[in-house]
Amino acid sequence: MISGAISSDQSIWKRIGQFIYLILAISGILLDRITPLRVLLWTLIAANILFLWFFKDWVTLEAVILFFVAMFVIRYAMLFGSFGQKGLAPWLIHRFGEKQGYAYYENLTAFLFFYRGTSFNLLVEYTADSLLIPLWLEPWATGLALVGMIGASIINLWATAIVGIDVYYYKDMFLGRAVGKFEVRGPFRYFSNPMYGIGQCNAYGAALYYGSVWGLLGTLLNQVLMYVFYFRFEKPHIKRLFAGSDASLPANL
């Protein structure tokens, strides 16, 4: 009886640990293992957090916009330049081998995930109240924003838990082969790509909550480019890997 209770407690704590790891991982903070690349990544993230904690008053609107644009351009230049025949992924594999090449790619992606998220958070904060909302509509807008942020965050976490962190960090596309089984369950029963679609409502919600026009426009452009990437690279990749298994493909893929 006592042994069963201990096992149950351990299982609960394990699930809590997995949940925390998942939240951090989709934000760009990877804590799964200690390597020189991970330590460098953690150092850069810590430097960003400490700078904003102690010196945020030094940051200007112009600097925030420049930071956001730079992270946006670098992120999508890397993403679109990764998976072609002469892309970054084949070059890294040829130069360093699959294991080390992906280690570089994964950590670089994590860096951009974190810094892009930071740049967006700063953008909506520094451009707050640029969206003119009638006073009587503000409570409704705030409620809608909170629903979007909470609901979309849950969907993103759920979808990521299903596909796995490796797929979230494009390991399957980097290697050109499946790294797990694609299952049609959870949000994938209703959306072919919940993270690129309804999952973006967390960013729209944050922009609406702050009343940031620039945040809304930035999110819209981000979503458009995500779908361009999806139809240009990701969808053909998924069909190639899972075309032989109807059960593994969403009906609307």
TrEMBL record:
Pfam family, one: PEMT
GO CC entries: endomembrane system
Location in the cell: Endomembrane system
Entry superkingdom: Bacteria
Coarse class of the protein's main subcellular location: membrane
Keyword Membrane: yes
UniProt keyword list: Membrane, Transmembrane, Transmembrane helix
Segments passing through the bilayer: 12-32, 39-55, 61-83, 104-124, 144-169, 213-231
InterPro entries given in the database record: Phopholipid_MeTrfase (IPR007318)
Membrane topology (UniProt): Multi-pass membrane protein
Protein name: DUF1295 domain-containing protein
Originating species: Fibrisoma montanum
Biological classification of the source: Bacteria, Pseudomonadati, Bacteroidota, Cytophagia, Cytophagales
